Structures are given as structure tokens and as C-alpha cells.
Amino acid sequence: MLERVVVTGRGVVSPIGNNIQDFWSAAKKGVCGVAPITHFDTEKYNVKLAAEVKDFDPLEYMDKRESRRSDRFCQFTVAAGSQAMAESGLDQPGAIEPERLGVLLGVGIGGLSTLEKEIGVNTTKGPGRVSPFMVPMIICNIGPGMLAIRFNAQGVCSTVVTACASGTNAIGDAFRLLQRNEMDAIITGGSEAAIAPVAMAGFSNMMALSLQKDPGRASIPFDKERSGFVLGEGSGILVLETLSHARQRGAKIFAELAGYGTTCDAYHITAPEPEGKGAARAITLALSDAGIAASQISYINAHGTGTEYNDLTETRAIKSAFASYAYEVPISSSKSMFGHLLGAAGGVEGLICVEALQEGLIPATINYKVPDENLDLDYVPQVSRSQELTYVMSNSLGFGGHNASIIFKKWDE
Question: Could you list the active site residues?
Fold first, then answer.
């Protein structure tokens, strides 16, 4: 018999808040985290806006030496992971056997800023000046590795790299391991910090980013005037735990993870399959895994990037999977508030789902103003909506054709 899996810890570093309370308060209000880029001089770049993490101090979570030897994505990982573990209580001695605690993290790109910086050092100052910590700072698995070291997690420790679906795939894969009772708890979610010159150039040259200069009209998923996504950064971490282990230690439970589906379009390296067949299949698999009908989903947190084809394809996928109920289920894109966090998106958006269930509140797709006749579903425009929620779904779609859907359930004994 499969174990039930619950959420017992939450942690976040994001463009709209650096702890779960500030983050959720901002999400409810529809705060926009998009602003002019400060990480580098944008004079030569077409893109002027991003969703940067603000007022983050890594020294709240690590000493100065470790901070200097850690890429920004790892700093975010340690911060959000520390928050989640402290809330879960699994950071206390004897709370869990080390061999039964794992880490499974989604990271799309890793230490890109460090790599770009050290390439510059190598070019201008020579190979002898390249940091000996460059390699461990840039590789994607160092984020989960640092969490494992910090919390003595001697179980599974791995990294999921499926582009923008990484965080959701990591949560889903952790769910599977816990269902089979291979672990008692897993620290999971996603982290990313790719607001770097070379990333901006690359995404911009492939026509993926919004060139808007008005923060209120840059990240506008499902809007007819959408013109690309806004790059964000941050980390969203959940502690997932088997229900039996959580009950045994009297843990506070925030939500249950009920279903997971994942597929591949096998179509194109960046473009989604036009009809959304792969995404629709991931949704259907998640519903089947949870043992529920499509009509039982109370809310969908969409991938909703704000690119022309993603939003159209995802809308088609929802229509295919939900049939007529697609016109009744509320759908919103949190990326309207904090941009696209790439590998971290699924982790941060998973937290949105957990918080939405607890409060019975659907965050809005902010800055949505101009309806698109081809996108005719309920995208919860502008203002958050109070509603009783039982099951909520989060979708993630990534370059390479990766599709992932997870379903959270309101906690009920």
C-alpha cells in the first residue's frame, strides 16, 4: 500500500518576499516584483526589466566564508531550505534518521553568474587567477549537496534538470520515493539565479523575453499584448514527509500531495507541441494518480509564462484535459507577479498552491488587461479571489518538451 505524502515545511526566497509570510502576503495583494535590472549595466541590452530578489542577505543563513564560496542560487537554496527545515522541526537532533532524509532539488541552469565571471577572469587575468571554487560553485547538484551537508541528509540526494519543469518534476519525483516508503522525508522544490548578462542576451536573441520597459505591462500571461516572459530568480522549498512519519512525531501538516503526472512532447527543443497534447496527458495522468475527476480541481496554477505560444498551448491543453469544465475552473499565473524563475518556478508555485489551499484564496493574474479571443478561460484577472479549495493543480512546461503536473489537496485527516 502506498504511503500518503504531506507538506510539513515551507521556505522561500523570491522577488516578492524572502520568507513564507511576506511572500504569501504579497501574493494575496498582487504585488509586482518586476523592476529595472540592478545586477548589471543594461545599456547594451534590449531587456531592461527582471524580477530580482530584493533585500536578501546570505549572512543570515551562512558565514561570510561560505557565502563567498557559494553561487547566488546556492545561497537561495540554503536560505529557503533552512526556513523549511526549521518549520518542519526536522532540523532538531533525533527528529529523523539521517539515512531516511533525502534532498531532491530542481535546478535549470545552476551557477551561471559565477561561470560568466570566471570566464572573464580567465580571459583578462589568465588561468592562474580562476577561482579554485569555480567548479563546485557552478554545478547544479551543489545546491542539494549543501542542504544534505547542513542537515545530515544521508538518503537520496539528487538534482532534476528539466528546464522550466525542474522544480515540479523534483517535487513529483520526491513524492514517488516517499509513496514507496524509500524515505521518511525529502527536502524538495527548486532554485535558480540566472539574471546574468549572457542569459539575458541568449533568451533575448531567441525572442523569448519581454522588451517592455513598463513593469506593469511586462509579465502579462494570457493577455493579448503579451510579448515574452520576464526572468526571475529565487528558491521555493517544501519538506515532504510520509504521513505515518509526520503523525508519529506530531508534525504540523500544511497540505497533502495527491497526484503527479509527467510526459514529454518529443516535438521540438524549445517550442511546445502546438495542440498541447503532451501537457494535456501530464494533467490527465496527475488526475488519474490522485484518483479524482477533472471537475474536482478547484484551481489551476498555470505555467503561464506570457509568451505567445506557451499561453496558447497551455490553454489548449487545459481544454483538452478538462473538456467543458475548463470554462469553470479558475486559472491564474503567479509569474505575473514574480516572473519566470526557470528551475525554481515549480517550487515557488507549489508553495502558492499550498498557501491557497490553507486560506481558500486564489491569487490573481495581475496586470491582465486585454483579453485574447483565443484564450477564453477564467484567468482570475487583477484581483485575488476567495473560494473554498479542495484540490489544486500546478503545471510546469519546459524547453525540451518537458511537462509536469502536480496536485495538492487541502489537509484533512
Answer: 164, 303, 340
Residues belonging to the chain: 413
Alpha-carbon distance of 297 to 389, in angstroms, equals 8
The 8-class DSSP code of residue 58 comes to G
Cα–Cα distance, 74 to 76 (Å, whole number): 5
Which of 313, 338, 317 is CA-nearest to residue 329? Answer: 317
DSSP 23-38: HHHHHHHT----EE--
| Residue 88: all three cell numbers together | 518542519
Q: Which three cell numbers stand for residue 150?
A: 547542513
pTM of the model: 0.98
Residue 320: how many other CB atoms lie within 10 Å: 17
Our measurement of the distance from residue 324's CA atom to the centroid of its chain's CA atoms, rounded to an integer in Å, reads 28
Q: Centre a 10 Å sphere on the Cβ of residue 253 and count the other Cβ atoms it contains.
A: 15
Per-residue pLDDT of the chain (413 residues; tens, 9 = 90+): 899 999 999 999 999 999 999 999 999 999 999 999 999 999 999 999 999 999 999 999 999 999 999 999 999 999 999 999 999 999 999 999 999 999 999 999 999 999 999 999 999 999 999 999 999 999 999 999 999 999 999 999 999 999 999 999 999 999 999 999 999 999 999 999 999 999 999 999 999 999 999 999 999 999 999 999 999 999 999 999 999 999 999 999 999 999 999 999 999 999 999 999 999 999 999 999 999 999 999 999 999 999 999 999 999 999 999 999 999 999 999 999 999 999 999 999 999 999 999 999 999 999 999 999 999 999 999 999 999 999 999 999 999 999 999 999 999 87
Write the CB contacts of 217 (distance below 8 Å, at least 6 apart in sequence): 225, 367
CA contacts within 13 A on the Cβ side of 324? 0
Nearest to 313 by CA among 346, 350, 265: 265
Q: Are the CB atoms for 172 and 5 separated by under 8 Å?
A: no
Nearby residues of 65 by Cβ (< 8 Å), 6 or more positions away: none
